[in-house]
Design goal:
The protein has a domain of about 110 residues: Arc Repressor Mutant, subunit A. The chain is about 65% helix and about 10% strand. It has 8 helices and 3 strands; from the N terminus they run ααααβααββαα.
Length: about 170
C-alpha cells in the first residue's frame, strides 16, 4: 500500500513540477526580476526600524499572522480573540504576548482597538482596511504554500537524502 501511495505521490509531484516549469517558461518581459532595482529597494529599507523591515518581521513572527487571519472574521473582544487563537495554536499564546502583538499591529495601522466604557471596560479589536488588505495577501501566500506543500516536502526529502552523510 505504501509503495502505491508513494508512486501516486511521485506522479502527482511530477505533474505539479511540470506545470510549474510551464509557468516559468511562459514568463513575459514584465515577469523578469530586476536585481538592481531590488538591491536599491533593500538598501533603502535596510534600516532596522524601517516600516518595510519591521512589517516583514512582524508578519513573519509566530502570532501576528494568526491574529490577522482570526480578525478577518470580524470584531472580537480580547478574551474571544485569545480563546480563538489558543484553539488553533500548537501552544497557547500568553496574554502578555497577545497584548504586545496587538499593540504592534495597532501601531502599524493593521488593527483597530475600541474601548467600550463599561465596568469593567471592554475592549474590541477589528482589522482596519489596511489590515484587511494585508490579511488577504497573507491568505494568498498561505494558499500558495498549501498548494506547494507536496513539492516542498519532496525537495526537503531530496535535500535530506543528499546531505545525510555530511552531518
Amino acid at each position: 500500500m505504501f509503495v502505491l501511495n508513494s508512486f501516486c505521490a511521485k506522479r502527482k509531484l511530477a505533474k505539479q513540477m511540470e506545470q510549474d516549469s510551464d509557468l516559468h517558461s511562459n514568463t513575459n518581459e514584465s515577469d523578469v526580476f530586476d536585481l538592481e532595482k531590488f538591491r536599491n529597494r533593500v538598501k533603502k529599507g535596510n534600516d532596522p526600524q524601517s516600516p518595510v523591515r519591521e512589517t516583514l518581521n512582524r508578519i513573519g513572527d509566530r502570532w501576528t499572522p494568526l491574529i490577522l487571519m482570526t480578525l478577518r472574521s470580524g470584531v472580537m473582544r480580547y478574551s474571544q480573540l485569545l480563546k480563538e487563537m489558543n484553539s488553533m495554536a500548537d501552544t497557547p499564546v500568553s496574554q502578555r504576548i497577545l497584548t504586545l502583538k496587538l499593540r504592534a499591529s495597532e501601531r502599524d495601522g493593521f488593527v483597530s482597538r475600541k474601548v467600550i466604557p463599561t465596568i469593567p471596560p471592554q475592549v474590541e479589536y477589528t482589522l482596519t482596511p489596511h489590515g484587511l488588505e494585508l490579511s488577504k495577501e497573507l491568505e494568498k501566500l498561505i494558499q500558495w504554500i498549501e498548494k506547494s506543500s507536496a513539492y516542498i516536502e519532496h525537495a526537503r526529502a531530496d535535500f535530506d537524502g543528499k546531505n545525510i552523510d555530511k552531518s
